[in-house]
Amino acid sequence: MLVEGKVTVITGGASGIGEATAKTYAEHGASVVVADIDETGAKETVDDIVENGGDATFVRTDVAEEADVKRMIEVAVEGYGGLDVLFNNAGIEGELADFASYEAADFDRVVDVNLRGTFYGMKYGIQAMLADGGGSIISTSSVASATGIMGRAGYSASKAGINGMTRAAAMEYAEDGIRVNAILPGIVATSMQDRVAVQRPDATDRYEITEAMPGRADPRELANAVLFLGSDLASRITGVALPVEGGFLLQP
Question: Is 79 helix (H, G, I), strand (E, B) or coil?
């Protein structure tokens, strides 16, 4: 029970890494606020947690909207008395296009969801944690933040920005008991990765060859890393962008 009694907010909790993390945190004793724009999927996550004896609440959240994110944090504080862990996980891959053809509107949309949404989460999550004696913030970055990903200029830029914000916030709030970290997933068996595979199967094949460990990661493997970073086992870890990518970044 690594996070027993901790109040946790997870964005993008309707599917993939977010869903797996919500269930993993609940299994380890946390109260979980599941936030997503996908109401059906997020409610299914909540129902599964409750049916298995856990405690979870759904709040519809478009992370690109500041008011939605502010309300999401308020739901946790008002409903559970504070905030201990925030997992900024919601994200989109955006359109697939060569750099010279990448539309500005598509770039803006990816940045609004992935980067600005994480900024809003950090901003209001930090405010709640300052009032509650500290906490842990984890955000989903990507191996795309550390290496080139063809056709994904907006995605790569947004994820690199998350790494920068993570380091900045970790420095600013270390003395306040707030730890701020990120994870860098590689090839994960999620609906996003399925869409990417349809759009550019040649690239997916290359990525899987590049990742030293075979196959694609199960979302639960990412959830375990988030569980560790949110728990007291990681009490001395802050400002880290933790690769959870089966050796993807080992290749030259």
Answer: helix
With bands split at pLDDT 50, 70 and 90, how would you rate the model's confidence at 93?
confident
CA 56 – CA 181 distance, rounded (Å): 24
How large is the angle between the packed helices 39-51 and 16-27, nearest 10 degrees? 20
Instruction: Answer left, alpha or beta for residue 133, where phi above 0 means left and psi between -120 and 50 means alpha.
Output: left
Does 155 participate in catalysis according to the annotation? Answer: yes
Q: Do residues 145 and 159 touch, judged by C-beta distance below 8 A?
A: yes
- The label of the residue with tokens 């300052």 reads 130
Query: For residues 97 and 156, what is the distance between their CA atoms, to the nearest angstrom?
Result: 13
Between these two residues, 167 and 94, which has the higher pLDDT value? 167
State pLDDT tens for residues 119-129: 999 999 999 99
Is residue 145 scored above 90 in pLDDT? Answer: yes
Residue 125: per-residue pLDDT: 98
Confidence (pTM): 0.94
Q: Please pick, among 102, 120, 155, 173, the residue that the annotation labels catalytic.
A: 155
- Which residues make Cβ contacts (< 8 Å) with residue 178, sequence separation at least 6? 126, 129, 130, 134, 135, 136, 137, 169
Distance CA(121)–CA(86), nearest Å, equals: 8
With tokens 């075979």, the residue in question is: 214
